[in-house]
Amino acid sequence: SQQGEEDPQALSIQEGENATMNCSYKTSINNLQWYRQNSGRGLVHLILIRSNEREKHSGRLRVTLDTSKKSSSLLITASRAADTASYFCATDGYGQNFVFGPGTRLSVLP
Amino acid sequence: DAMVIQNPRYQVTQFGKPVTLSCSQTLNHNVMYWYQQKSSQAPKLLFHYYDKDFNNEADTPDNFQSRRPNTSFCFLDIRSPGLGDAAMYLCATSRGPGTLAFFGQGTRLTVV
Prior knowledge:
The complex is a heterodimer.
Chain A: E1 5-7, E2 10-14, E3 19-24, E4 31-37, E5 43-50, E6 55-58, E7 61-66, E8 71-76, E9 85-92, E10 99-100, E11 104-109
Chain B: E1 4-7, E2 10-13, E3 19-25, E4 31-37, E5 44-50, E6 53-56, E7 64-67, E8 73-78, E9 87-94, E10 102-103, E11 107-111
Parallel strand pairs in B: 2-11
Antiparallel strand pairs in B: 1-3, 3-8, 4-5, 4-9, 5-6, 7-8, 9-10, 9-11
């Protein structure tokens, strides 16, 4: 089954810095989604990017998608302590439900 | 207001004693999913309902069952919980495959 795989697995940065997380997947997709999960809580969707899109923005978030490289990146600009969480990408192909990658644990230090 | 509600938030059950986790939604979404998430791992899809159609993932153990009596509710039944079934169980809904999913807060299951 196709699966997104994020890297790095863990990332620590200072408040105000930018954080970049990457996701790679194996097979053709219909769309790719990024989710955030605070410790012990449910997942919150951040951005959905379709296979025919290359970039999307939402506030301090910027997602890119390169289908030729089967990869996506999530950029969080001007990070805050409240951005500390795990970030997952999830991919789905035509007619298939999305599968999550192992996630990146982001720590933003004050 | 919460749109996907899972009850209870924390559940303790005895080894081998059947347990049911519940999920309800106010979004009127067609699809409801159940995921299992173990510590520091990605959520793993167990099964989903598209309306009344049940779709089981190939590697979901028979110990896990699900019911969806109506659009709003979906249940996860674990017939004989083992220690390895201790995890966070996440319910999610979406309008259809490939659309945004909305997750509940999860139920953390402990097996003693």
